[in-house]
Known about the structure:
Layout: E1 7-12, H1 16-19, H2 34-46, E2 50-56, E3 95-99, H3 110-116, E4 121-127, H4 129-142, E5 146-150, E6 154-155, H5 159-173, E7 175-177, H6 179-186
Parallel strand pairs: 1-2, 1-4, 2-3, 4-5, 4-6, 5-7
Pfam families: Isochorismatase (PF00857)
Organism: Gluconacetobacter diazotrophicus
Protein name: Cysteine hydrolase
Amino acid sequence: MTSRRKIALLLVDVINSFFDPGEPNYYPGAEDVLPVIATMLRAARQHGHLVIHAAERHRTFHDDFEWKKLPIHHLEGDPSTDFVTGFEPAGPAEAVIYKRRYSAFFATDLALFLHEQNVTHLIIVGVKTNCCIRATVQDAFAHGFTPIVPREATSSNRPHLAEASLEDIARYFGEVVSATEAEKMLG
């Protein structure tokens, strides 16, 4: 029996909070990944690959367990949670997953949705490599998907932790490839 490979592109937290210098979670250099992500997004759209936008959102006026570790952030309706201009979903064919934890899989229907679409491989891009990307990759693997992380399409304000995370991803959970390799997969 041969298995068919079906690839989807998952953008994690490509929202203003991380990429606009005036926003609370911005860090210098975060925007360097945007041109690489834009190229992959164009390729995915052009070649008919499924595109999913995962964005962190928390409920206004309600407690959230995450506040035990982090300051209050990414509240519904706050402009910091808007998608970066040019990275908004391009119509209803692109799925949006709102998450309340680091992983795009935790307490969302992402795994169910991807299985229903027969996705086998997931190219994961966005921020932060050592936190939301790593958590999403680990859960992708646990749900039976092959996660693929293009090195130049993720970043972190802690480069040493990003490198350690990429090493762990390559060793235990999936593939770490160049942006060029990921673009070819989407081509």
